[in-house]
Specification:
about 240 residues, alpha+beta, Gyrase A, domain 2, Alpha-Beta Plaits, 2 domains, 6-stranded mixed β-sheet
């Protein structure tokens, strides 16, 4: 298993963009997290009525490589079901995303990350052909959350030429601002973009620019968490 170190802070990084936007950063689980951009209540309102853009880069991001049969068996055992290429399922507190038959990306909250990393490492030692990488420091994760998520993603071209989300898999790649972005389409109200950290700032700006017509607002983790609870309480909205 390879572990990569975090890049140094330089002008133009995602961190600098968040700071310029007024992000309030705190340390959680050893990583900087934007709790809000000045008003968690206002940011929640933006998600409810329009759309929010959040940095979720603190998520643990693990990648499994291996022969399709072994990888499928391992995923089914830990996620509770097999995942077809392009598919994504939620299981055991994590998202299991099959980028291909031989490559699976696992995303989870950092509170679960250490335990899941250790569990996967133990499983990998019993499967010589399967490898595990920790890409948490290498990839940023940008979340689009709220009522206008679907039209914004259509505007960005994530759904392809038809603009129909039914025509793309739950895990779909889309080239954006010179970067290969991998989108996890969690629901019609939330999508997560995985992007190399070196390109995260430019991808953030591209999403923000396209989202202006939809009332986009930079939002922190407080608003993202509250919006998830709001959706559970009012699933029809």
């Amino acid at each position: 298993m390879s572990v990569h170190t975090s890049p140094e802070h330089i002008p133009g990084t995602l961190e600098s963009v968040l700071e310029q936007a007024g992000g309030v950063l705190v340390q959680r689980h050893g990583r900087a997290v934007v709790t809000n951009f000045g008003s968690a209540a206002g940011e929640l309102a933006a998600c409810v009525s329009a759309v929010g853009l959040a940095d979720c880069s603190e998520l643990t991001k693990l990648v499994l490589h291996g022969p399709s049969q072994q990888l499928s068996h391992l995923t089914a055992r830990l996620a509770g079901t097999e995942v077809a290429p392009g598919g994504a399922v939620r299981g055991g507190g994590a998202w299991w995303c099959a980028e291909s038959s031989e490559r699976t990306i696992v995303l989870c909250d950092p509170r679960l990350g250490d335990r899941l990393r250790s569990e996967l490492a133990a499983q990998v030692t019993r499967r010589a052909a399967v490898t595990l990488e920790d890409r948490t420091a290498d990839w940023a994760a940008l979340a689009v959350v709220g009522r206008q998520t679907r039209p914004l993603l259509a505007e960005l071209g994530v759904y392809g030429e038809t603009g129909d989300p039914r025509r793309v898999p739950p895990l779909t790649a889309h080239f954006m601002t010179g970067a290969d972005v991998l989108w996890l389409l969690e629901s019609d109200r939330k999508a997560l973009a995985l992007v190399p950290r070196s390109s995260a700032a430019s991808v953030w700006r591209t999403i923000d620019h396209a989202g202006q017509r939809f009332g986009i607002c930079a939002v922190g983790q407080e608003a993202v968490t509250r919006y998830a609870l709001h959706r559970q309480a009012t699933p029809a909205l």
